[in-house]
């Protein structure tokens, strides 16, 4: 067993829990409510100064959800969904935070949440069949179960540009935005990164700054959100049929209820497909476009039709043909990198105060005290915004010193690539569960619908373990391997593998490449989970 500095630590008797949850985002909040209601003694530990997880940290200008608010919300409580008033079709970051604060208050969650505290380490003790949890405030806690609700997109990719330490201006990572905000008025700003985050930041900052220089490595497909205020009538109508809407969300692969029927597009005449895409473009959002046909992400023909349609929209929107061409994705299928949803993204490049640099043609050489040196010149800037993404799905789990049976570390266990039985549990790590872990579908749809399903599943498993009187539950190696192979097999039937994205770990140097989420959709995933439960926790071994 490796040297364990904390192994002898003993906990205050009051600090013994049934379940410790790392993270107080959507997942952690619902886990706390669900498991506490089931009679477990639960503590949630959160590094942020408030609840909200990704919505606590990502407070950059323009931060907004791209799933419709009425769907991107908890369904577990009828009173909650009836009383909350969403003001826009797509909620902004501040509104989602207010919602999650309301959830925390409404269900009296705060008394069991420890803020401003990180889980530094979690070590399993085989003799007592529990976890010793060490936190950043120096506490040592004991818990029978540990649940990592650390978020699929929370471990940031740090900017490692040469010379950054000497930069005399201000710089920010989009997901570590200062509480007090940033004043862009009259400033010269550089934005590096044009994923979902950059696509939201750029139009917002361009309205405030003197000049914005965008440094783009890969152009992205993006579709208009068509955000708008929610009228009272519209919201009333949703609320009157909420129960049905939630059922339809759970019955959809993506966890979003509309539209009810999807037909394949293969073989449909091109002009008919374009007319269909045009209607989706007018509706806006992922609902409008990605789900125009059922085979957009599996058929090269249909995907290319939609990609051509979006490329033509970029050409129509951006006045300068050279800039339009730079913004046009040509060498990967639409959706293989996460599709962006925007408000006036391409239009922003028509502004006189916005410049686009393709860093493939004109690479960043280094950051200087005054700005950014590229191969062809120097860009003077006051502020640099890094919207360069995350070590997705596994990063936040691996940041914690997690040791399972016989001191096995999660880093070692996942060295060749991450594996988890149904994305939920890892062999060698008894009594530990993952939310939105590798091999779970969450990031490929409406994460709130998906995580409610996972919370229910974990709660069901814990209740079964409790009534069985078992001391430990652990994913079997064979089940873990079988699920990991299934995840790759399903991904190989899609076009997802054809983009260099965080979906496959390609954005982080040295990260094993493999499809991280489960592309089989919510319905299929849920059926697999149900079958596991009905077969008496198939793929898990229990000890008494
Ligand atoms: P991302 O999708 O990984 O995009 C990162 C961007 O930074 C890419 O354009 C990437 O270029 C660029 N980049 C990274 N390193 C670079 C370097 N060294 N030099 C130049 N460019 C570099 O990250 P994200 O935009 O933060 O989004 C991550 C995910 O968060 C999204 O896919 C989405 O799931 C979620 N999100 C959702 C919303 C929403 O709901 N509206 C908003 C924001 C984020 P390459 O493509 O060439 O790697």
Architecture blueprint of SSEs:
Elements: E1 16-22, H1 26-37, E2 42-45, H2 54-57, H3 78-83, H4 93-106, E3 113-114, E4 119-125, E5 130-135, E6 140-148, E7 170-173, E8 188-192, H5 196-206, E9 211-216, E10 222-224, H6 232-240, H7 242-250, H8 270-283, H9 285-289, H10 300-317, H11 321-326, E11 340-342, H12 345-348, E12 354-358, E13 364-367, E14 371-374, E15 378-380, E16 383-386, H13 395-398, E17 401-403, H14 410-413, E18 432-434, H15 447-468, E19 472-475, H16 477-492, H17 521-534, E20 540-543
Parallel strand pairs: 1-2, 1-6, 2-3, 4-17, 6-18, 7-16, 8-9, 8-16, 9-12, 10-11
Antiparallel strand pairs: 4-5, 5-6, 13-14, 14-15, 19-20
The structure holds NADP nicotinamide-adenine-dinucleotide phosphate.
| End-to-end Cα distance | 23 Å
Backbone shape: globular
Classify the fold: give the CATH topology of the largest domain.
FAD/NAD(P)-binding domain
How would you characterize the largest beta sheet?
8 strands, mixed
Helix vs. strand class: alpha/beta
Ligands bound, unique? NADP nicotinamide-adenine-dinucleotide phosphate
Average pLDDT value? 95
Low-confidence stretches: 1-8
